[in-house]
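Try this one yourself first.
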């Protein structure tokens, strides 16, 4: 009898627990959650944080700059004079609005003037464009004058204004603007072998007429004697296709096409660089192999227009050459080369001529990005300017007279986040390296045209921006331009994100990230975690500055009760070559560091519910999110993958060939989400823009097809008329779809259906 009574009590206790759980209050998501999330959209939040940061527009040859920012009085333009150590409003904004209302007839609010750009045409006169017209405003008399209809700069016109290049029937012509005389430069141009119009990355062709956008390109020599351009050779190239369902006037979708090389393809658009001499009326080809259209090669004029130089990568990206071109003959001379057993990220290299005899170039040849000085004529190494376990990221200024080089680098200061940039100076011989921005923060800099001053924004995600003017040579802080005011944020309940460092996949290397707490955060709570990912080997996405930490795709999620994590795992950029190369031929392996980070964060912060983890990403991040769902189903239960390159064999050639290897091999097959579709267990939404010419939707369709074959349940959304950037604009439709997917499947709440954004894109 006693055992029976105990058994009955146990059953009653279990029943009570079940009933209590079923009666527990559920999370209620209301429109107020969406409205608070919208507040973090860029158009809104920049009005909440006064003096968020300074983006200087230096006056030519001057030590003064203007910038525009939001203050308690609305949008305001400021003028800073470094030599006078003074910042003031650039003009009377109320008088400006009154003049616009009176003269142009446009209703102008002094808190939100209808332009974002100005120019100083005289010390007391600013110009701006409204209604496609250029206007001049006298800050002295407060009068407004019509100047002329606004015309964008015409790069086809020579610097001296005497000649203009144009294309007719695929051939080049030069028009004398003084006499009107026309001269034909080429005669062998035909459709698919087209002079003067390089193939643009986003050139989409409507198959109803077969015409591609016009991209006239002319690179004039400074003396106006010669110009350089390209022939686009499309004769052997293959196309990819899109269907546009969004044209309102059509009952049938438009068929669109574009030329695009895939990894390993030989059927490519090639660019052939060509030169023309107006005085000798001669055309010469630059002596280089045809350049695949996905390799950007830009020529720069030197020696008074007698020569040009360029950085030219080789297919497979294991070598890049700096070449010098004789403008008269087109003959080329290799000055110096850079090579790597992994890849040369040629787009990140510093390549700068210093005077007539030296070349400054960065290289990862010793395992870290550092700067080297070479003899321009012989290619011999003169000196290695920087060395050590840190990364040189940007050349800021070269002082030829003092023989000083100013640059940004990360990781030199011991004990600091290696992703934070600091400003340094070194001599031409690599001696005397000095730190010029000592504050423990991420530093963004801009040097005055006169080379004496530098505007420096410094901040961290948890430290608002301070904007100062420094003396460049010494780094001495001269005066403060502004400091970000976050009173409105604090009143709103904003909490600064938490920077963190954890161990990567090897359990030894430090990796860095940022953790955002939910808006309803309490230490005793339990909150689901969303992992935002884009672990492309060419990128690092963890925000470093205050503005990037505040204005991003992650913050709005916190208003619904999510914690959000972002981390740069091993295999990404801005660290050593060894750090980057772990993802070579193994891009899908990047997610292992994310899994490690989640485990460590869960132990450090018990309020993170590691049994409820979601992930999302766009483009390469969409590949990551899907990969994580397939490989780590025990960690990730909900995922949203948009515009994803699910199989690198279907991607644009440059990215996979650089980071997955060339020519393609079996490793491409292993890294495909399509070939791993059978592993899906959680809830996954895949989405794509129907006319995405960057990442063709075919990979998403193929992945969906394989999921269906495997009998896997999933959700799919195709957005008609959308290209690659959907979901990254503020207040677009997919933003809401992504929020709702996590609210429903990760938070376990009911989203607000048919919510309409108050802030429209």
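Now uncover the answer:
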């Amino acid at each position: 009898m006693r055992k029976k009574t105990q058994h009955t009590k146990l059953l009653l206790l279990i029943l009570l627990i079940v009933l209590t759980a079923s009666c527990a209050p559920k999370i209620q998501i209301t429109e107020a959650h969406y409205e608070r999330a919208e507040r973090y959209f860029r158009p809104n939040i920049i009005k909440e944080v006064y003096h968020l940061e300074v983006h200087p527009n230096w006056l030519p040859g001057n030590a003064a700059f203007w910038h525009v920012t939001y203050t308690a009085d609305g949008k305001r333009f400021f003028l800073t004079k470094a030599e006078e150590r003074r910042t003031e409003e650039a003009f009377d904004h109320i008088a400006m609005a009154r003049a616009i209302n009176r003269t142009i007839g446009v209703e102008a609010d002094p808190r939100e003037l209808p332009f974002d750009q100005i120019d100083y045409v005289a010390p007391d006169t600013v110009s701006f464009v409204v209604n496609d017209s250029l206007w001049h405003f006298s800050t002295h008399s407060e009068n407004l004058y019509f100047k002329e209809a606004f015309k964008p700069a015409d790069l086809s016109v020579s610097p001296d204004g005497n000649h203009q290049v144009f294309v007719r029937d695929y051939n080049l012509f030069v028009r004398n603007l003084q006499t009107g005389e026309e001269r034909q430069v080429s005669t062998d141009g035909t459709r698919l072998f087209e002079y003067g119009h390089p193939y643009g990355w986003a050139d989409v062709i409507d198959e109803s007429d077969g015409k591609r956008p016009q991209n006239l390109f002319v690179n004039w020599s400074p003396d106006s004697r010669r110009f350089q351009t390209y022939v686009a050779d499309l004769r052997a190239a293959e196309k990819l296709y899109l269907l546009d369902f969004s044209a309102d006037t059509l009952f049938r979708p438009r068929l669109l096409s574009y030329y695009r090389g895939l990894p390993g393809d030989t059927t490519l658009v090639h660019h052939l660089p060509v030169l023309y001499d107006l005085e000798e009326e001669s055309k010469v080809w630059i002596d280089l192999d045809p350049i695949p259209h996905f390799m950007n090669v830009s020529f720069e004029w030197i020696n008074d227009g007698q020569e040009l130089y360029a950085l030219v990568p080789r297919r497979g990206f294991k070598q890049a050459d700096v070449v010098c071109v004789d403008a008269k003959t087109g003959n080329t001379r290799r000055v110096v080369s850079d090579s790597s057993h992994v890849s040369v990220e040629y787009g990140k290299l510093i390549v700068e001529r210093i005077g007539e005899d030296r070349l400054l170039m960065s290289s990862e040849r010793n395992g870290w990005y550092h700067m080297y000085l070479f003899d321009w004529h012989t290619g011999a190494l003169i000196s290695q300017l920087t060395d050590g376990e840190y990364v040189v990221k940007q050349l800021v200024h070269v002082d030829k007279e003092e023989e000083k080089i100013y640059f940004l680098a990360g990781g030199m200061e011991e004990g600091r986040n290696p992703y934070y940039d600091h400003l340094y100076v070194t001599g031409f011989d690599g001696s005397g390296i000095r730190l010029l921005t000592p504050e423990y923060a991420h530093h963004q800099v801009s040097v005055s045209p006169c080379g004496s001053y530098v505007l420096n924004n410094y901040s961290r995600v948890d430290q608002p921006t301070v904007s100062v003017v420094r003396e460049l040579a010494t780094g001495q802080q001269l005066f403060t331009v502004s400091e970000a005011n976050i009173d409105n944020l604090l009143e709103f309940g904003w909490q600064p994100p938490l920077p963190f460092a954890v161990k990567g996949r090897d359990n030894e290397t430090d990796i860095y990230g940022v953790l955002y707490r939910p808006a309803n955060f309490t230490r005793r709570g339990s909150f689901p975690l969303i992992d935002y990912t884009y672990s492309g080997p060419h990128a690092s996405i963890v925000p470093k500055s205050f503005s990037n930490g505040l204005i991003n795709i992650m913050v709005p999620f916190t208003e619904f009760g999510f914690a959000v994590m972002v981390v740069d795992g091993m295999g990404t950029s801005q660290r050593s070559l060894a750090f980057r190369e772990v993802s070579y031929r193994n891009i899908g392996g990047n997610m292992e560091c994310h899994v490690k980070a989640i485990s460590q964060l869960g132990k450090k912060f018990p309020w993170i519910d590691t049994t409820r983890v979601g992930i999302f990403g766009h483009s390469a991040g969409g590949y990551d999110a899907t990969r994580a769902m397939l490989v780590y189903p025990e960690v990730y239960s909900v995922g949203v993958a948009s515009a994803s390159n699910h199989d690198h064999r279907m991607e644009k050639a440059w990215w996979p060939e650089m980071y997955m290897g060339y020519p393609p091999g079996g490793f491409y097959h292993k890294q495909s989400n399509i070939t791993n579709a059978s592993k899906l267990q959680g809830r996954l939404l895949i989405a794509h823009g129907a006319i995405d010419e960057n990442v063709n939707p075919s990979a998403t369709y193929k992945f969906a097809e394989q999921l269906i074959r495997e009998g896997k349940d999933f959700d799919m959304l195709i957005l008609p008329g959308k290209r690659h950037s959907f979901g990254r604009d503020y207040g677009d439709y997919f933003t809401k779809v992504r929020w709702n997917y996590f609210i429903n499947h990760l938070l376990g709440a009911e989203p607000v259906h048919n919510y309409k954004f108050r802030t429209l894109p």
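Discussion: Residues 322 and 551 are 38 Å apart (CA to CA). The chain is about 15% helix and 35% strand.
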